[in-house]
Fold each of these.
Amino acid sequence: MESKEIEKFSEKNLSYVVYKDLKERGLVVKVVDYGLRLYDRQISVKGPASAIILIKKFENIIDFSDIIAELGKGLERRVQISIVDSENSAVYYVAKFVSWPQTKLKDDAKSSVDDVNMKELIDKGYQINSGLKFGTHYRVYNYESKHAPWLIQKIDDSMSWLDVTRMVRVGHGVNKTIVLAYKGYWISFDWIKP
């Protein structure tokens, strides 16, 4: 087999791994060119899918182009990401665009970060502080929050899907939403059990 054929077979194999996993969980799944369509329990397959599932290999470098394209369609269905490891075990996340409404800083609060990438949030009144203690770049507060509801990680071109898995795991463990800052987009990832 040539390298392109091997790559195509590998991608199809990942699709099959996720397809099989979801079917074994009792879900209805249909194969489409760009991923899988998932129908939640008690949802008719005659209507629109509950989710589109985009499949990623854990060791691959992050590419959000298909995620951004799906989210950009603005459809009612979820955009789920399935990350598959070397043992063909899959974890699932829901990806969403994050919009930041206007807020204001508390009287005694200030942002400790001076990062051009965070200017949009600072201008909208969010308090941005170091996220080091959570293993991310930043933690973000709005006017109402006593604790930071969001952790932000800037994504660079060398990060893998395994890095995303680590970040979401930490965020889930401390009850915070992980937001990935990627080329001008804000994308949240939340763990989901299918």
Amino acid sequence: MKFLEVLTIIKVKPHKIFFISVGLLYIIFLMISFFTELGNVSRLRMPYIDDIPNNNYIPFSTIVAYIFNFDHYNLSTCFFNTLGNILIFFPLGIIAPILFNKIYLYKHIIYITILIRGAIEVLQYNSTMGVFDVDDIILSLVGSLIGFHLYVKSLVKNQQS
């Protein structure tokens, strides 16, 4: 049985089918971005000293280093580690409340983002495909909250018109 047939049998509305498909593609994109050679972002941002990865457990440490020592890093490293983390989680703030009716508060987006990004950070650390950086969690949280805020604003605007 095909994926779309299953969704039709369990009476999922057509617009939900679209967003479920987008959500699945988003998950695949995240996996490719963080765990394969194709998504080379994790390798661009891994600072190594004597082949020992530098994990960051101090909030805002990497972000502050990029801001105040911008001239010591190459542009792609700064971009991928800051704006990249914000942009890659922006869609989560929009897709999650559409797919799951129980996600309707900012705290719900905070929980789901920390859960997903925390899992990615732990998997990167354990698989040696990257390093653990708490700032990645913070920046991803910013991205998903911006997406959720815009989603909420669009709902309010639609209800007023």
